[in-house]
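Recap from last week: sequence in, structure out.
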Amino acid sequence: MTSQSNGALASATMDIANMNVHQQHQNPQYANIGRHQQESWKRTPLMLSSEETSRPLSRPPTSDPAVYGLNPVYSLSPAEVYSSVTEPYKYYNGFHFFFSHISSRMDKKNVMRVSRAIAHFRPSLVALLRNLTREDLVFMEKSLQRALLEYEKLIGFIGTPTVVWRRSGEIVLVGKEFSILTQWDRQQLISGRRFIFELMDVESAVVYWEQFAVHAFENSEHAVMSECKLVRPDGSIVPCAFSFTIKRDLFGIPMAVIGNFLPIL
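Predicted structure tokens:
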């Protein structure tokens, strides 16, 4: 892997880490946690030893539900959503896994393509998050969880294979039609903290991040049309026509991505 790709990913990692540290500085109760996280982020996945890179990728902790909604596993009412969300969502766990994933699963050419995509939207993301308070971050998570209640109703009506994921790629809602199409277990995808790029082949994942970077901070919410190849649990490929729509919160930050998939026969 080239020094240019190392520098690009390391820069992306440190910017997100510094953003978290800035928010923790505004909230002293997170100071100790912030120092630990800052040290862990300094050792980017691209700097891991050969022994560490040979281990299976570790996933973000799964102690909390990934989604609140009408899903039978996490059936909460709107009132329960508002009362249950008391902390900001820890996006750095998802991005840490993302960097580990691309550095261990992609060649240097694709790593550079993803690095350039991240560099395209990272400054806007950091600038918008920098001045938000802890209360703002909690409000953002409540907004997402409340929106998922409505998204789940909509997915049940349209009957199209649909997945909803966070800006980090973490899946938070899965329609039953998507499970039928891909043979992935719906509960496994949500409770297991799976990421949408894990369900795509390498080229499809790279193209997705390139398209996301271009449209992440547009003023409109039009659907982005594309094609991708989904990977089933047994490794078989499902070619699909693919569209996604980026939903933004009150602050103009990408809150959720709604993806629709139709198999190409």
